Each structure stands twice: as structure tokens, then as C-alpha cells.
Amino acid sequence: MQPFGELEAAVMRCLWQRTEPTTVREVLVELTRSRPLAYTTVMTVMDNLHGKGHVQRHMHNRAWLYTPTRSSAEHRAALLQEILGEAGDRDAVLMHFVADLDPDSVATLKSAVEAARPPTNDQ
Hints:
By secondary structure, this protein is mainly α. The chain is built from six helices and two strands; from the N terminus they run αααββααα. It folds into two domains: 6-68, Winged helix-like DNA-binding domain superfamily/Winged helix DNA-binding domain (Arc Repressor Mutant, subunit A, Orthogonal Bundle), CATH 1.10.10.10; 72-116.
């Protein structure tokens, strides 16, 4: 999975912030607050994101409505998994990652590890 390009990332941020399926025009309005963009540019990016499986779409009246296929957190977790999968020494990468965490993040990580462990049959 390739990281998003600049415009793809901007579109995805817009989609992740919304709770409802979104049209190209709605994304365009949001993005043109910070830079000029053509409708066709945004439409092409959203179509490409659909083709890559990052968004799903369905037709409503005469417009496609887009929604992300996974949350921002799920996407970032998949990127981390890919990075770890490509690491020659996965354990070393994880150790360096954890060594750079602040104490609150370490506590959060410990809680996540405990929650992910299967329950034991020790009663």
C-alpha cells in the first residue's frame, strides 16, 4: 500500500471528518478553501481512491456518494503493519519505536497489548 499523495490525503481527511456519504462537489468546496482546484481534478482523485479500494461509492440521484472503506486509525494501522512486514528485523523496529514513545503512549500501548491477548482458561 502506497502512502497517499498530497491531494489524496486531503480528500481522505475530508471524507474521514464527515459522518455522511459525501459528493465530489462537497469535497471540492472544502478543499478550495485553501487552494483553487477544478471539479474534474477532485473527481479524478476520488475515482482513483475508489479504484484503489480506499473509498466506496454508490449512486444517489445523479451523483456518486463516497465513504471511506476504513477509518483513519485503521488506515494508519495498516500502514504500520506494512512497514513492520517489510522490516528485516521486526523486533528491532518495534523496540526502537517503543523506546521513542512518551510515558502516556507506553501506558496506552500496554493497555492495547493486554486487551489484545486472548483470555486464559485460568479461573
